[in-house]
Amino acid sequence: MTLLLVGCGKMGGAMLEGWLDQGIAAKDVTIVEPNQDAARDYIQRLGVNAIAAADELSDGYAPDVVVVAVKPQIMADVLPPYAKLVPEGTVGGPVFLSIAAGKTIQSFEAILGSGAAIVRAMPNTPASVGRGITVGCPNAHVSEAQAALCKTLLGAVGEVEWVTDEGLLDAVTAVSGSGPAYIFLLAEAMGHAGRMAGLPPELSDKLARATVAGAGELLHQSPLPAATLRENVTSPGGTTAAALDVLMGSHGLKDLMTEAIAAATRRSRELAR
Ligand SMILES: NC(=O)c1ccc[n+]([C@@H]2O[C@H](COP(=O)([O-])OP(=O)(O)OC[C@H]3O[C@@H](n4cnc5c(N)ncnc54)[C@H](OP(=O)(O)O)[C@@H]3O)[C@@H](O)[C@H]2O)c1
């Protein structure tokens, strides 16, 4: 399996380290890194091949998969030279696996050709600690073997779900793509509230951070639904119940989160236009 990684920043770099940890051979990986000087140490440490631009790809280079992890704003400038990897008029060629937020399958087909095999995926930043969740969506040209390869690559940095309705990816972006920010905000808000309740700032922030991280780990390890875990720590008439009366009251956290996720979903649709 040979792999070309276009864009080796936060997400691309996290995935690359995951692949190497999982046993993909560095010699089979080529990264496109425009700033070779800045990345020299990194490239040497990982032992992957690195080129500065697509025009350095040797004639006949035919990777099995091209992972596209550049910022969405520069996609239209970056991608066109990679269209040469898609054989004209025949099926075959690599599968392009994009993790760019909001970039539709159609926008890739417009650049790479309508016969290109494309998987649009939405990961999230816990991928950098191997705890991401990614949802992938293939176009009609992706073979079963290519889908399996993409799932394996995405699985190196966390869980993978697969959908065939691309329209779902806006809501996926709103829930899991943007979701880590909501959880960081929760830790911020709890730290602030603890300070307001009289705790020393440092202690309050530490309690909030450890509580969010610890509860997240408990949720990760437990087979129980989140609602059951919540009920298990809520005694009738107790302190948790007093807080939850506020959080679950009219226009409480569920309503607010529903509004927030609807706003993010709308924004994802707007950005894809
Ligand atoms: N971060 C997230 O939370 C998140 C979540 C889900 C999806 N994503 C998606 O992941 C993608 C990457 O995001 P990121 O946060 O990893 O961004 P990033 O850290 O800025 O990474 C992008 C990388 O692409 C490189 N690059 C720029 N021009 C290039 C070119 N012509 N050829 C090859 N590489 C080039 C950049 O190099 P320079 O730095 O030298 O310009 C940088 O290393 C985005 O499309 C984003 O939508 C990100």
Order of adjacent strands in the largest pleated sheet: 3-2-1-4-5-6-7-8
Question: What's the helical proportion of residues?
Answer: 40-55%
* Sheet having the most strands: 8 strands, mixed
Strand content: 5-15%
Rounded radius of gyration (Å)? 22 Å
What is bound: which ligands? NADP nicotinamide-adenine-dinucleotide phosphate
Low-confidence stretches: none
Mean pLDDT: 95
Query: How does the helix and strand content classify structurally?
Result: alpha/beta
Number of helices: 11
Distance N terminus to C terminus? 34 Å
Overall number of strands? 8
Shape: elongated
Describe the structure.
The structure is a single chain. The chain is an alpha/beta fold and about 270 residues long. The chain contains eleven helices and eight strands. An eight-stranded mixed sheet has the order 3-2-1-4-5-6-7-8, sandwiched between helices. α6 packs across α11 and α7 packs across α8. Bound molecules: NADP nicotinamide-adenine-dinucleotide phosphate (NAP).
